[in-house]
Specification:
Strand content: over 45%
Number of helices: 1
CATH topology: Immunoglobulin-like
Mean pLDDT: 82
Helix content: under 10%
Oligomer: single chain
Number of domains: 1
Shape: globular
Amino acid sequence: MNKICLIAIVLSFTLFDISSNALAVERNSNIIIEAPYVRASIPGTDITSAYMSIENKNNEAIILTGVSGLFADRIEIHQHTMSNGMMKMRQVEQLVVNEQSKVILQPMGYHLMIFNVKKALLPEEEVSLTLHFKQQKDLVITIPVQSIKQEKPAKKQHHHH
């Protein structure tokens, strides 16, 4: 085997190592999804939420316009905001990820609200989400279901809006 071929094989395993919890969604994608998960169902409810970071390696902003999944009837982009000392949650129509930037979807910030889940989501399962972008191809990602106990507290991170 020649050296160039061997280097290409080693690089491909290094760049697309799923076990690192970073997902390069497409080989030519400039959008990187990291640490995605959906919360396991709480018994008696059909609503849950999903979290991840969306990194934009493009030289122009990308806009997430919606998310869908066959396991639920409706998925909305939501944002928690503090208003007069009260935490409020509201739906946002789109989420802008500026060029060479990252937006973190996390508890008490931007997140995905998932409504009318068709069957209970259990830890260790996986679900498929389709991220819909304006002026970009849809990205389909498979993400794990985690119980609330498995969640890691979000590190303090700065992101620009």
